[in-house]
Amino acid sequence: MARKTKQQALETRQHILDVALRLFSQQGVSATSLAEIANAAGVTRGAIYWHFKNKSDLFSEIWELSESNIGELEIEIEYQAKFPDDPLSVLREILVHILEATVTEERRRLLMEIIFHKCEFVGEMVVVQQAQRSLCLESYDRIEQTLKHCINAKMLPENLLTRRAAILMRSFISGLMENWLFAPQSFDLKKEARAYVTILLEMYQLCPTLRASTVTGSP
Questions:
Q1: Could you say which of 3.40.640.10, 3.40.50.740, 2.70.50.80, 1.10.357.10 is the CATH number of the domain covering 54-214?
Q2: Are the CB atoms for 211 and 205 separated by under 8 Å?
Q3: According to the 3-state scheme, what is the secondary structure of the chain?
Q4: What CATH topology corresponds to 1-52?
Q5: Model-level pTM?
């Protein structure tokens, strides 16, 4: 019975997140109240507060879902098995998947729309900002570690400025998603995804400004 109750609680929590995701996407975060989420989810406000302290807490979990999607473990394991000694190909396929899935997977698309275009860090949402900055810095660390694996495998230059490259990667991928979500008719993200990723990785391999030896004062 306890196991069933715990499972029901998890299902309710996920249902609330799903409904909040839909409403945030439709109305924006600041214009959506917890009362509206509770009503749309068919639960009481007490049920909302049992799972989440407030709207910023609920939104933080949605944001963390968007961050975890960028490094989906299952996808990474799949490509590591396919390319066991080729970390650069693993990275390439993961990045292509991220871009293509933004087009083809509705849940991911809604998440990205909210993050990029339908959230303001004002009022009660101000407290979320620092936590999200921490997640951003952590993502740089993860990307940098992946790039170092590629360097160790001699697939990227040994003097690649990995921090600069990590910042470039996050900015490049996020920028493509943000611009496509804002104006999806302006370019075919799914069709062009692999070409864009290839351009990015070729910059890492060939761009002298990303090499430590060519930058004054670089480590």
A1: 1.10.357.10
A2: no
A3: CHHHHHHHHHHHHHHHHHHHHHHHHHHCCCCCCHHHHHHHHCCCHHHHHHHCCCHHHHHHHHHHHHHHHHCCHHHHHHHHHHCCCCHHHHHHHHHHHHHHHHHHCHHHHHHHHHHHHCCCCCHHHHHHHHHHHHHHHHHHHHHHHHHHHHHHCCCCCCCECHHHHHHHHHHHHHHHHHHHHHCHHHCCHHHHHHHHHHHHHHHHHHCHHHEHHHCCCCC
A4: Arc Repressor Mutant, subunit A (1.10.10)
A5: 0.80
Q: What is the pLDDT along the chain (219 residues), one digit of tens a residue?
A: 456 588 888 899 999 999 999 999 999 888 899 999 999 999 999 999 999 998 988 988 887 776 655 445 567 777 888 888 899 999 999 999 999 999 998 888 988 888 888 887 777 777 777 777 887 888 899 999 999 999 999 999 999 999 999 999 999 999 999 999 999 999 999 999 999 999 999 999 999 999 997 544 444
Say which residue the tokens 């920028």 belong to. 175
Residue with tokens 């439709």: 26
